[in-house]
Amino acid sequence: MAAGPCPAGATDAQPAPAWPDPDRLTYGEIRFSPPKPQRVVLENGLTVYTLEDRELPLVQVSFLVGAGSVFEPDGKAGLAELTGDAMRTGGAGKLGGDEVDEQLEYLAAPVSVNVGMEYGTGSLSVLKRDLEKAFRIFADILRRPAFEEAKVEHAKNLKIEELRRVFDAPQRLAFREFRRVLYAGNPRGRLPEIQTIEAITRDDLVAFHRAHVFPRNLRIAVTGDLSKEEALALVERHFGDWDDEGDFSTAPLPKPQEQGPLYHFSRKGPQSTVIIGTIGPGKESPDFHAFTVLDHILGSGGFRSRIFQEVRSNRGLAYSAGSFFEGRQGYGTFGAYAMTKTESTGQVLSVLQDILKDARESPMPAQDIHLAKRSIVNSYIFSFTSSHMIAFQHMALEFHGLPVKFLAEYPAKIDAVTREDVLKVAQKYLAPDRRTVFVLGDETKFDEPLRSFGTVKRVK
Amino acid sequence: MMPSSKRPPRAAVGPFGVLLTVAALVALAPAASSGYNLEERVQRVTLENGLRLLLVERHTSPTVALYIRHLVGAADEADGQTGAAHLLEHMLFKGTRTIGSKNFKEEERVLKRIRETGTALDRERMKGARADEAEIKRLEQKLKELQSEAKEWVVENEIDRLYTENGAVGLNASTGQDVTTYKVSLPSNRIELWARIEADRMTTPVMREFYTERDVVMEERRQTYESVPARKLSELFFATAFAANPYRRPIIGWPSDIAFLSPDYLESFFRQYHAPGNTVIAIVGDIDAAKTLEMVKKYFGPIPAHPPAVRRVTEEPPQSGPKRVTLAADANPHLIIGWHKPTLPAFEDYVFDVIEALLSKGRTSRFHRSIVQGKQLAEDVSAANGMPGARYPNLFMISGTPRHPHGPDELEEAVYVELEKLKKEPVQKQELEKIVNQLRAEFIRELNSNSGLASRLSYYEIITGDYRYMTRYIDMIEKVTPKDIMEAAKKYLTEENRTVAVLQRKVNP
Q: Which of A58, A197, A347, B62 has its CA 20 to 30 A from that of B188?
C-alpha cells in the first residue's frame, strides 16, 4: 500500500511511509465506569443529585422542572417562556432585578432559566468560594421570583420584537411553521404570536409559576468542588422549608396526521426549505433503539447517511440536508430535511420521498446497519465527559419516567437491533399516510408544481 | 446547559451547516488565586519539519480532543479566487489516494479528464454573453458522463465514515480569514486513526467530486448569505470598511469567484499553506503524552517541510473620513458600526477587549442597561473587538437590532452617547473588577472541556506564535487603566475612522 506523499500533481515529492489500512488498525480496550451520582429526596419531595469532582474550584448546579408551554392556557402562547425569562430578570426574594444582575455578574456566576415545550431547565455556575452567595440568589429565583412589572413588560417587548423578525430568517421560520403543522390539534402546535404575547399579564406569570414550580415537580443537580454532604446541606438550607404544592399536569400526546395535505408556506427568496416529518417512538418505546439506528442511516449519521450522501454529495443540491430524531416521553419527533435553491425544490422533495420509500420497502444492507450501530455504540462514551453531564442525565432520565439502567443498557440495546427491526419501524412510522410534508419557498420558481406531489394546502 | 463562552475563530464557515457568527471573543487566562497553572500542564514540541504540537493530559473521561490549525484563510487568497480557502477545506473531506478509492490508478485517469473538461467548460462559461452555448452543452454532457464513470472508483465520504464508525463527535472544520481548522473528538484509544487520516490528507488529498462540491458551496452561500439579509449586511459592511486589505472579502467568496474556482489553484494553495511549518496541533484529553508524541512523530514526521509561504498582504491605508452604506432588503432594520484599530498583541487590543466587555458583556453592561433595558431602543446591541480577523489590523465593531418602532438612526445615536461617556468619564474601579472576575471565571470553566482547551491553545499558538498569550492574558487585562480606556476611545472611536452599514426595509414588489 505504498503511496507517494505529494498532493495530486505535486512535484516536490519525497518517499513516504506505507499507510496502514485504517479499517485494520487495532485499538486497546477502554475500561471506564462512569462515576455514579447520589440521589436523595428531601422531605418536601425535592429530588437532589450530587456528584463530587475536585478537578477545578467550581460548582455547577442545574434544575429540571415539569413546567412547559404545553400547559399554557388558550390564547396565551408564550407564557411559559416569558415566565422563565422574568424569573431570571424580574427580581428574586429581597433583591430587585437589577440587583440580582449586579450581584451575579460581580461574582461571575451566570444563572440561566429556560422554560421550553415540556419542561424547564436552569443553571448556575460559580467558583466554590462564592457558592453560598450565588446559591441563595439561585434559590430565590426558583422559589421567590418577584416578577417586577417593568421587567415583565420588557420581556414581552423583546419577545414581540423577536416575533417581528421571525420572517427575516427563512430556515428558522420554516422549522417554526413546520412545528405548527406537525403538531396541529395538539398544545405543542400552539406558537407564540404578537397578539398572544400582548394578552399575557404579570398575574399570568405569577399563576404559572405557582402552579408548576414546587418541590415535588423539581429536581436539582449539584456537582463539582464539594462533598455530597456539603451539597445536600446547601440544598436543604435553601429549599428544605419549602412545602408548596402545585399542579402535576399532563398534556395529551401528539398524534401523527392521517392523509394530511402538503403544506406550502409561500415566501420569496433564493432557497426553499423542504421537511418531511412524523411522530416517532418515545424513549420508553420498544421501537426507540431501532428507530435511532434508522434515523442514523437515513440522515443523522454524518456524510455517509443516505440523505446527505444523495442530496449533497451526489447531486450538489444542498448544503444542509439530513434528518433529526428526538425521542421524548410517550412520543418522538422525526424529520427529513434539505434547503435547496428554489429551482430544485421539486427534485429534492422527490429524492427525500424516494429515500423514505426505499427504507420502507427494502431491508437496509447489513453493512449500513453495522456502521450505524458501531458509530452509536462507539460514541456512547461521550455521554460521560463531565460530572455535571452525568448527574444531569440521571436527573433527566428520572424526569422522563425512564429507569436509571436506560443509559447503561443503551449500547447493548443498540447492538441488538436487527435489519428486520429497522425495516419494521420504517414501515410502522414512515408510512406515507402518517407524514407531514412541508415546503417553504417561492412557488413561482419551483421546478415542478407542488400539486404534482398531492393535495396542497397554503398556510401562507 | 452552561453558557458557552465565546471561542475563536470569530468568523468562520464550516462544512456542516455550522456558522460561527460574530462571536465577540475575549481570551481567557488563569486565576492566580486558584493555583491552577496551565503552563505547567502544556507540553510544547516542534518536529523537525516545523510542525508544532501542544499536549495536555486530562483524565476525566476516556476521550480526547484533536485540533489541527493551519495559518491560512480567506485573507491569503489571490484576487479573483475568493472562496478558495473554504472550498479547499470542503475538498479535504473527499479523501486521499488510499482513502476513498477502489483503485486510485484507474480513478486518477478519469479525474484527469474531468479536470480537463471542467476547465474547458469554465473557460467557455467565463465568456459570458459571447460564450458558445452549444459548446457549453456539449462539455456539460461530457462532464456528466465522466463524473458517473468516476463514481465506479469512488468510495464516497470515507473520511467521515471512518471517523463516524469509530465514535467521533464534533467532527468539523472551519475556515476563517486567518486560520483553517480541522477538529474531532474520539474515544482516547483511537488516536492512531486520527493520525493516519490527518497525516494522509496533509500530504496526498485527492480533489475528487470537485465540481459537485463547488455547487454545494453555492448552496451554502444561498443558505447562509443570500437568504439572510443580516448576513448580507455584514458582508457589505466589511467590503466597505476595508478599502484595500483582504479582510474586505467574504470568507465564503463572491458568487462569481466561487463559480470558477479551479482544482489547480486549490492544489497550489494547499501545497503552500497546509505545510507542516504552517501547522499547529493540539491534543487534550485522556492521553499518555509520551506515547502520543511518538504517534504524531510516526505519522506527521515524514511530511516534507515546505519553504515558508511568502505573504504579500496589501496594507489598509488610514481611513480619512466617515463611510456609510445601505442595504435595502425586505427585512427588519439592522445596524453595524466599526472603527479601525491595531490587532493583538498590541496593548491597545487588550484595551479594546475591556471596552467590549464594558459595553456589552452581560445584563449589567452599559449597552444593556442604557439602550436595551433603559431606553428600550434595541432588541440587542453588542460589541465585538477584533473583527474579522486578528492577523492584520482589524475593527472594533458594534452591531444591533432596533426595536420597533425605533429605527436604526435612534440606535446609532444612543450608541454614540455611550461612546462619548467612555471618552469623557473614567471607568469606576468596581466596573473594571467585575470584568476581570468574569474573565477569570470563564477561563476556569474553559478548562473543564477538552475541546475548549484544545481550541484555545491551538488558536493562540498559531495566531501569535505562542499559546502563552492565553495563559498570561488576565495579567495584561489587569494592567488596563481607566486612562488607557479614555485614550483609546478618543484616539480610535472617531467619526472619521468610522464605517456604518444599515439595513433598511424595502418591500419587494
A: A58
Query: Do B66-270 and B323-505 have matching folds?
Result: yes
User: How many Cβ pairs within 8 Å bridge chains A and B?
Assistant: 266
Residue B206's H or E segment, with its range, is none
Decide if B193 contacts B64 (C-beta within 8 A).
no
Quickly name the fold that domain B323-505 has: Cytochrome Bc1 Complex; Chain A, domain 1 (3.30.830)
Residues A346, A376 contacting (CB under 8 angstroms): no
Q: Are A238 and A272 in contact (CB under 8 A)?
A: no
In this prediction the pTM is: 0.93
Q: Order of strands across the sheet with A262-266?
A: A321-327, A332-341, A271-280, A436-441, A262-266, A456-458
Cβ distance B302 to A303 less than 8 Å, yes or no, reads no
Buried b / exposed e over A161-184, threshold 16 CB at 10 Å, is: bebebbebbbbebbbbbbbbbbbb
Q: Across the interface, do A382 and B169 touch by the CB < 8 Å criterion?
A: yes
Domain ranges of chain B: 66-270, 323-505
Residue A6 at interface with chain B, using a CB cutoff of 8 Å = yes
Region(s) of chain A under CATH 3.30.830.10: 38-239, 262-458
Q: How many CA atoms lie within 13 A of A20 on its CB side?
A: 12
DSSP state of A313: I
Nearest CA in chain A to B437: A108
* CB of B454 closer than 8 Å to CB of B331: no
Sheet holding A58-65, edge to edge: A38-41, A47-52, A218-224, A58-65, A120-127, A111-115
First CA to last CA across chain A, in angstroms?
Answer: 59
CATH no. for A262-458: 3.30.830.10
Q: What whole-number distance in Å separates Cα of residue A295 and Cα of residue A289?
A: 10
State the DSSP code for B38: H
Could you give the ipTM of this predicted complex? 0.93
All residues of chain A having their beta carbon less than 8 Å from the beta carbon of residue B157 are 302-304, 308-309, 313
Greatest CA separation for chain A: 78
Question: Domain B66-270 is of which CATH architecture?
Answer: 2-Layer Sandwich (3.30)
Q: List the pLDDT tens digit at each of the 509 positions of chain B.
A: 222 223 343 344 444 333 322 222 223 333 333 335 899 999 999 999 999 999 999 999 999 999 999 999 999 999 999 999 999 999 999 999 999 999 999 999 999 999 999 999 999 999 999 999 999 999 999 999 999 999 999 999 999 999 999 999 999 999 999 999 999 999 999 999 999 999 999 999 999 999 999 999 999 999 999 999 999 999 999 999 999 999 999 999 999 999 999 999 999 999 999 999 999 999 999 999 999 999 999 999 999 999 988 888 899 999 999 999 999 999 999 999 999 999 999 999 999 999 999 999 999 999 999 999 999 999 999 999 999 999 999 999 999 999 999 999 999 999 999 999 999 999 999 999 999 999 989 988 988 999 999 999 999 999 999 999 999 999 999 999 999 999 999 999 999 999 999 999 987 65
Q: Do B379 and A374 lie within an 8 Å CB cutoff? A: no
